[in-house]
Design brief:
4 helices, Pectate Lyase C-like
């Protein structure tokens, strides 16, 4: 790896279309392999056949020829299925097609297009009664997704996904189990599996565990693995995981519950 290679050359983000976006900061398979090993702890089964789109916008200098075969082989090693690329200069488009990948328009991943600004409403007529009409109930209260509660321990191989809401685990999470939430995750039993909060990119999401000991934690696509064990300061203790700082560093903090 060259001295100028970025510390983290790949990051993963979910999209509203069900595909994962791999944001690349390097295009060489060897550099990406290094980052993936450090990020995922060498766990080749971390992903589960998810479709992935490669975003090249962050690559400062592309090679004259991209090793598509090497990139696809690397991603499949981690059980990712590459389906397309985006934000890649036109001179590489022919190579993309030969590799059997699609050219994706980034606007397709941004959800619904922004609505046009509504016309300025006409001024309301002068009220004819002094009693104010009852306020309409807030739409957000009616449509908010309730927090998901799980009151049983999760065994190895089980997965829970709290879509669009927070996840509260009243039992523990065994090694090999996986809990995912678009919001925050609160675990009141031993947390031993994988915990991924902010799965749709919510950087304010948090993971709170009363007994910390996971294999992996993630907030909004920023991962940390513990293949060398949990740091002594946090092992088995109440711990908060969150992103902080302008660079969204993933931090662990011991919680004082007394």
């Amino acid at each position: 790896m060259s001295a100028s290679a970025p510390a983290r050359s790949i990051e993963f983000h979910n999209t509203t279309l069900g595909a994962t976006v791999a944001v690349l900061l390097a295009a060489e398979p060897s550099t990406l392999a290094d980052s993936l090993h450090k990020m995922l702890g060498g766990m080749p089964d971390f992903f589960n056949g998810e479709a992935v789109i490669l975003d090249f916008a962050g690559v400062a200098q592309l090679p004259a020829r991209i090793d598509w075969s090497g990139l696809q082989s690397l991603l499949r090693r981690y059980r990712l299925q590459p389906i397309g690329v985006m934000r890649l200069p036109a001179e590489h488009h022919e190579g993309v097609r030969r590799a059997g990948l699609a050219l994706i328009d980034p606007s397709q991943l941004a959800g619904r297009p922004p609505a046009e600004a509504p016309a300025q409403p006409a001024p309301p007529p002068e009220p004819v009664a002094t009693q104010a009409p009852p306020a309409a109930p807030a739409a957000s209260a009616a449509t908010a997704t309730p927090t998901m509660f799980v009151d049983r321990p999760l065994r190895s191989g089980q997965q829970i996904y709290a879509r669009g809401t927070d996840l509260v685990l009243l039992g523990g999470v065994s090694p090999g189990a996986e809990v995912i939430a678009d919001g925050s995750i609160h675990c009141y039993g031993p947390l031993r599996g994988r915990a991924l909060a902010g799965a749709q990119g919510d950087q304010a999401a948090r993971i709170v565990a009363s007994n910390f000991g996971p294999e992996l934690v993630s907030i909004a696509g920023v991962y940390r693995t513990f293949e060398r064990g949990i740091p002594e300061a946090f092992a088995g203790k109440p711990t908060l995981v969150r992103l902080s700082g302008a660079d969204h560093t993933l931090n662990l903090e011991v919680l004082k519950l007394d």
